[in-house]
């Protein structure tokens, strides 16, 4: 029983990374209608920026702050430089564009930093807490706290500020928002910036455990895609809950279902998604969209 | 395809191929000349160049299969590289472990491709856009992982190798490389001729109807899901065939050849070459084969592969944003605008249809 709880808890700790990435996917999707397949690579860029800052002698926390700000700037640049030229109703083009960014960012990362895995220092120290037979590392606790804090900030930003209100207005109804004098391009790039900042936190939290390499976020991205589908990509609460569920269930499934484990957990994650989507096509928290023929 | 183009197609000149016999279209003669040159090539260049050209032809079959899916059936698959790899593994393992002859192994690859296409296609035809992309990207990402996982069976890192060339030359007057190139070229020409017939006929017109509007297609008696499934299976079969030929040309299959990036590269080749053109498929495949070696002449070492990847990404981005019909489409547009200028010189010519309409027909 203790083992079961421990695995579930570890899964929850991994799940926060999926949740953060899925939130980034969701924010971009709601705004631009694009499934940003390069979100994982963007998180890797953030982790490498933080690593480079640490190598240059900057302490770890300022380095992380620099990485988050730089990622937000990169997100804005990508929106303004590339994404805004593709109209939101062309699903196939947007999808191809997501692949393009994935390919391009992966190449740039590999050229600048090389493909050898590197160690990433944990910003949370190396202590361990024992609680009722369960074991938690500082990295796990710190990661959860950092991601939870980021999500709280995002939730407050989206629901309690005019900034968030305007972001949501542009995402939900671009034309009405334009009539109200909001420049949609500006606000969509702000949405990209927010998403990339959240993704950056995910990258920095994941890097110490996964080891820093260009392919670091491939599996977490697939998990986040599963999470977004599971929770319903139109719902910000849904994607986060989806990420946590995927984290816990794949950890438990990987341990107790024979033949699973490692990267194959992705198969299990998508099996869960398919099972749920058959019953609720829009995901657990998503709203069905009705189209008039 | 933008909306106006799609709407002109069914009402416009959908019957044009019947009015103008195929042997009188410029495309047909271009193809004849291209094949004639391609047949002459093995006697002019070195065996190493022939090896590369054989790779281009094999990859071109894979890209053409993806063209059928993206350009004609309107489904973007990110997993075609995995199907390509499955075909390669099926053929190589049939030779290695079952000791089947090469041609039977090719048939085995085709059968496995059909099976894979059917299994993936059943859910895929009900999806479009993002969900299909999601399904196929997961398949593409998992394929190499599975190869490592079942390494007792697949040979793991070392893969499966051929003991002897797959297409040994039957005569002394041709080297193995020359013979192998000619065989692969023949298979490519057959594939393209088959695809060209497939999309020109009734099924092709039904597909344009589906792209114009699903409801329109259904009300005209087109069984949309069945047709899309058929095309998905055909596309997978051809991808597996291309993969098997590619494996035979190389003489080995290793998991390293089929990462997620390879599947994406096939999509790049399809979009950049022009996803509604068979010549585009060959151009795209040539880019996939030659760009990495061009890049390695610019920067030596490991970075060159990533430089090539970066170029792919930039070119793909440009195609998505600026020229959605790829190199072949741009060439065709140029040709038709020249034709229009010539026709306007002849004064009282009727207004030419928009250039893209021609593209729709052939």
Automatic annotation (TrEMBL), chain A:
Membrane topology is:
Multi-pass membrane protein
- Which Pfam families does the entry mention? BPD_transp_2 (PF02653)
Q: Which UniProt keywords apply?
A: Amino-acid transport, Cell membrane, Membrane, Transmembrane, Transmembrane helix, Transport
List cellular component terms (GO): plasma membrane
TM region positions: 12-29, 64-82, 94-113, 141-163, 184-206, 212-230, 237-258, 264-285
Query: Where's it mainly located?
Result: membrane
An annotated GO BP: amino acid transport
Q: Where in the cell is it found?
A: Cell membrane
Record's InterPro entries?
A: ABC_transp_permease, BCAA_transport_permease
**GO molecular function annotations of the record:** transmembrane transporter activity
What PANTHER family would the database entry show?
ABC TRANSPORTER PERMEASE PROTEIN, BRANCHED-CHAIN AMINO ACID TRANSPORT SYSTEM PERMEASE PROTEIN LIVH
Q: Which protein family is named in the record?
A: Belongs to the binding-protein-dependent transport system permease family. LivHM subfamily.
* Protein name, per record: Branched-chain amino acid ABC transporter permease
Source organism of this protein record? Agromyces agglutinans
TrEMBL record, chain B:
The protein's location, in the record's own words, is: Cell membrane
Q: What is its main location?
A: membrane
Q: Name one GO molecular function term.
A: branched-chain amino acid transmembrane transporter activity
| Classification via InterPro entries | ABC_transp_permease, LivM-like
Any one annotated GO CC term: plasma membrane
- Topology with respect to the bilayer: Multi-pass membrane protein
**Sequence intervals crossing the membrane:** 27-45, 51-69, 104-125, 132-150, 179-199, 231-251, 257-274, 281-300, 306-330
Domain of life according to the entry: Bacteria
**Which keywords does the record carry?**
Cell membrane, Membrane, Transmembrane, Transmembrane helix
Q: Indicate what this protein is called per its UniProt record.
A: Branched-chain amino acid ABC transporter permease
Which Pfam families would you find in this protein's record?
A: BPD_transp_2
Q: Which organism is it from?
A: Agromyces agglutinans
């Amino acid at each position: 029983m203790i083992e079961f709880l421990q695995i579930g808890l570890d899964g929850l700790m991994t799940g926060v990374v999926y949740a953060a990435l899925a939130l980034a996917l969701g924010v971009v999707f709601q705004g631009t209608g694009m499934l940003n397949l390069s979100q994982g690579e963007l998180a890797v860029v953030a982790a490498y920026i933080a690593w480079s800052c640490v190598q240059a002698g900057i302490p770890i926390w300022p380095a992380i702050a620099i990485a988050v700000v730089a990622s937000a700037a990169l997100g804005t640049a990508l929106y303004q430089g590339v994404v805004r030229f593709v109209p939101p109703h062309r699903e196939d083009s947007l999808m191809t564009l997501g692949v393009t960014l994935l390919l391009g960012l992966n190449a740039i990362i590999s050229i600048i930093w090389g493909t050898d895995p590197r160690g990433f220092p944990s910003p949370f120290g190396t202590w361990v807490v024992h609680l009722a037979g369960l074991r938690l590392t500082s990295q796990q606790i710190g990661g959860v706290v950092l991601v939870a804090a980021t999500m709280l900030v995002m939730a407050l930003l989206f629901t309690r500020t005019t900034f968030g209100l305007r972001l949501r207005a542009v995402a939900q109804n671009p034309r009405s928002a334009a009539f109200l004098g909001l420049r949609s391009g500006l606000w969509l790039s702000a949405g990209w910036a927010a998403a990339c900042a959240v993704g950056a936190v995910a990258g920095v939290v994941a890097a110490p455990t996964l080891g820093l390499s260009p392919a670091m976020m491939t599996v977490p991205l697939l998990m986040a895609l599963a999470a977004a589908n599971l929770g319903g990509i139109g719902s910000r609460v849904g994607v986060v809950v989806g990420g946590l569920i995927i984290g816990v269930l794949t950890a438990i499934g990987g341990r107790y279902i024979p033949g699973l484990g490692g990267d194959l957990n992705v198969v299990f994650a998508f099996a869960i998604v398919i099972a749920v989507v058959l019953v609720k096509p829009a995901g657990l928290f998503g709203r069905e969209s009705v189209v008039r023929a | 395809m933008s909306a106006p183009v799609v709407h002109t197609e069914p009402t416009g000149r959908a019957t044009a191929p019947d009015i103008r016999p195929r042997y009188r279209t410029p495309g047909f003669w271009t193809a004849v000349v291209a094949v004639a040159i391609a047949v002459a090539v093995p006697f002019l260049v070195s065996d190493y160049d022939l090896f590369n050209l054989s790779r281009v032809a094999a990859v071109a079959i894979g890209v053409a299969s993806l063209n059928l899916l993206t350009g004609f059936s309107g489904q973007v698959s990110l997993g075609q590289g995995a199907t390509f790899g499955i075909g390669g593994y099926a053929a190589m393992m049939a030779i290695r472990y079952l000791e089947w002859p090469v041609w039977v192994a090719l048939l085995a690859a085709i059968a496995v491709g059909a099976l894979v296409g059917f299994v993936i296609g059943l859910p895929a035809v009900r999806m479009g856009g993002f969900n299909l992309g999601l399904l196929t990207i997961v398949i593409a990402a998992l394929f190499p992982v599975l190869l490592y996982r079942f390494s007792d069976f697949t040979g793991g890192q070392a893969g499966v190798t051929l003991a002897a060339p797959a297409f040994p030359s039957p005569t002394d007057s041709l080297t193995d490389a020359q013979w192998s190139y000619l065989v692969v070229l023949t298979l490519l020409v057959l594939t393209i001729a088959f695809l060209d017939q497939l999309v020109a006929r009734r099924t092709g017109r039904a597909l344009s109807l589906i792209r114009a509007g699903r409801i329109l297609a259904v009300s005209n008696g087109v069984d949309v899901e069945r047709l899309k499934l058929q095309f998905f299976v055909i596309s997978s079969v051809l991808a597996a065939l291309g993969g098997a030929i590619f494996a035979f040309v190389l003489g080995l299959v290793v998991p390293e050849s089929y990462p997620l990036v390879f599947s994406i590269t096939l999509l790049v080749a399809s979009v950049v070459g022009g996803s509604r053109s068979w010549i585009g498929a060959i151009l795209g495949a040539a880019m996939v084969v030659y760009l990495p070696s061009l890049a390695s002449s610019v920067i030596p070492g490991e970075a060159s592969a990533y430089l090539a990847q970066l170029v792919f990404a930039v070119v793909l981005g440009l195609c998505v944003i600026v020229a959605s019909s790829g190199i072949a489409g741009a060439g065709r547009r140029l040709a038709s605008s020249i034709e229009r200028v010539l026709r306007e010189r002849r004064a009282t010519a009727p207004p030419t249809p928009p250039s893209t309409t021609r593209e729709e027909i052939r």
